[in-house]
Design a protein that fits this description.
Distance between the termini: 28 Å
Number of helices: 10
Order of helices and strands: HHHHHHHHHH
Structural class: mainly alpha
Strand content: under 5%
Largest sheet: none
Oligomer: single chain
Helix content: over 70%
Length: about 250
């Protein structure tokens, strides 16, 4: 095997070997969110016409699981390699920075999509779902997972210890995810908060993915896919630039 497939295999094996923790645990967490929020707010939450709150909630939970786990995969893997010092064994072989980027991001996408598919497979037993535009759902799932995989790499390259990764996840990823419309439609917010939500790129991932299921959304899916695609291009360029320069890796 060459450098790229070997590194990709290593990253895939890394999360799959502990799938009870990396896949099963997030599925349980999503189920708890569904049970608590659907039953607590089911009769009071304002969502799209013709949809129950539980139906509205499931795509958001699926996408949230994809995003959070894609970030966790690349960030935890690289920071662990940096701290233990075995990152040198990935830098010495003739693996280009593009192969390095591709292996980590693809493995992150695999974990995120595996968790998202598992959440969807479990929740459909409790909620009646339809898929109005499956290609839109797949496109947003793939791009969302790729964005968070790249963002996880950037965070891990920048960080020097696990505490900094945890801070990045708790103070950046978690707030942006929870304030992106996972648990509510932004149409129910005051005008100022609706405008603020449109500055959150995570909102476009959640909203576009939800459009794939119901054919309705808070904003145009074309606008959402444009924002998401541009976000990925910018993050990928930033991450590849950091890898090419060896920033905080070749020291």
């Amino acid at each position: 095997m060459g450098g790229f497939p070997t590194l990709l295999y290593k990253e895939l094996l890394r999360f799959w070997k502990v799938s009870f923790q990396t896949v099963a645990a997030p599925v349980l967490m999503a189920l708890l969110y569904l049970v608590v929020f659907a039953y607590a707010l089911g009769d009071r939450a304002s969502v799209f016409p013709g949809l129950s709150y539980a139906q509205f909630l499931v795509p958001g939970l699926v996408m949230m699981s994809i995003l959070q786990n894609a970030f966790a995969n690349s960030s935890s893997s690289l920071i662990q390699s940096k701290i233990t010092g075995n990152v040198v064994f990935m830098l010495l072989p003739p693996i280009s920075y593009l192969e390095f980027f591709g292996a980590y991001v693809l493995a992150s996408m695999a974990r995120g999509l595996a968790v998202g598919a598992s959440v969807l497979a479990v929740t459909v037993w409790f909620v009646d779902l339809r898929v109005a535009a499956p290609l839109w759902a797949v496109a947003f799932a793939l791009l969302g997972a790729a964005i968070l995989g790249a963002l996880g790499l950037i965070a891990a390259i920048w960080a020097d210890k696990f505490d900094q990764i945890a801070a990045f996840q708790n103070f950046v990823i978690l707030p942006l995810t929870f304030l992106s419309g996972v648990f509510y439609s932004i149409q129910s917010l005051p005008a100022a908060w609706q405008a603020a939500s449109h500055l959150n790129p995570f909102f476009y991932m959640i909203d576009g993915f939800r459009y794939g299921f119901f054919g309705v959304s808070d904003t145009s899916p074309l606008a959402s896919i444009s924002v998401v695609a541009v976000s990925f291009a910018l993050l990928a360029a930033t991450c590849i630039g950091m890898l090419r320069s060896g920033y905080k890796l070749r020291q």
